Amino acid sequence: MPIIKDPHLFNEQSLFVDLEGVLDCRLYLKIEGFNFAGSIKLKPAREMVERAEREGLIGPGSILVESSSGNLGVALSMIAASKGYRFVCVIDPRCNPATRQLMESLGAQVDLVTEPDPVDGFLGARLNHVQDLCASDERYIWLNQYTNPGNWGAHYRWTAPGISNQFPELDVLFVGAGTTGTLMGCARYFREHRPDVRIVAVDAAGSVSFGGQPAVRLIPGLGMSVRPPQLDESLIDDVVMVEELDTVRACHRLAAAGFMLGGSTGTVVHGAMSWLTDHGAQDLTAVAISPDMGRPYLDTIYNPDWVHDHFGAAALASAGLTGAPDRRSDPVPEPQHPAPVPVADYVGTAALGNFLK
Ligand SMILES: Cc1ncc(COP(=O)(O)O)c(C=O)c1O
Question: Per-residue pLDDT tens for 31-88?
Fold first, then answer.
């Protein structure tokens, strides 16, 4: 076992789950949630901070700032705590209370924007706040995961080689698309080193990344309301869009076998299963990437009331939540958290696109 002095130095990167016994198809899942930040975002967080250090952009006294309501914010909070930087994470009301508390417990300052920008929604409001901070004091450094090459570079350096080494016979890789850092890092690596491997992007229905119509999305991680600046579609072979109900069903199917994984894992697993079925490709060697674990989703995907409220009674049964209707007749305690609000800003505008360049 490794002995470490800094939390970001431990990251289990060689764990794969063989899902053949759980699903009706051959699929290996690369597990990325076993580290102190709890997600794949540890890699881009570390890469972006260490590049900025090497380039002399940050040093003692710097204040890191980023807009994130989730995994990247937690990872940067952890790294900033370890390296002695101040970190300001700009969030909006969609950040769940446990994630906010996690960042604050790690010493981060959390700035909550409460009003959406009239044109660009909450993402626009968060980016406005980041820019105001940077304009107010030169010690603020915005890492900007949307455009920072360290985002995709981390996956080119670590994620893709880890998969390639483990699966010399790999045929197809399924990667979820949020900022597209993971997707672009893996796609570039495989294009350069093993161009025979097919790269399939998996996105949430309602995301505009691949030209779809914007719609409300509830599950964080995947999908964008503006086209991701890092996305180069020429590097990918195919795209699968997944409805959120299918994400929920896939998560519960995995949990029923003891694998409690995050929402975007359900999306990617469902997307991979449909693609493999549609292409009659059951004999291919296929890998999908699981970005985080299931615990942060106990109040949403794994909460029968939440599933019922957002997807209806039929969804409970189809997600395998038998017994949940009985539980619903028990007295329900007052909610501890604000009601979940959609993750996406509905429209991506040119104005917002300018922020992300
Ligand atoms: C749970 C989860 N899944 C998937 C992603 C998407 O990764 P990327 O931004 O590299 O596209 C994220 C990004 O924050 C995430 O938090």
Answer: 999 999 999 999 999 999 999 999 999 999 999 999 987 899 999 999 999 999 999 9
Alpha carbons within 13 angstroms on the beta-carbon side of residue 292 total: 24
Residues of the chain with pLDDT under 50: 323-351
C-alpha of residue 334 to centroid of ligand 1, in Å: 31
What residues flank ligand 1, with Cβ below 6 Å? Answer: 39, 41, 70-72, 176-183, 221-222, 262, 264, 291-292
Coil, helix or strand for 239? Answer: strand
Using most ligand atoms within 8 A of CB, pick from 31, 34, 47, 179 the residue to mutate for ligand 1. Answer: 179
In the CATH scheme, what is the code of domain 7-34+156-296? 3.40.50.1100
Instruction: List the chain domain ranges.
Output: 7-34+156-296, 42-142
Closest listed residue to residue 82, CA positions, set 46, 57, 48: 46
List CB contacts of 141: < 8 A, sequence separation 6 or more: 52, 57, 58, 62, 63, 64, 65, 134
The answer to whether 7-34+156-296 and 42-142 have equal CATH topology is yes
CATH class as words, domain 42-142:
alpha beta
pLDDT for 316-326, tens place per residue? 887 776 544 44
- pLDDT per residue as tens digits for the range 241-258: 999 999 999 999 999 999
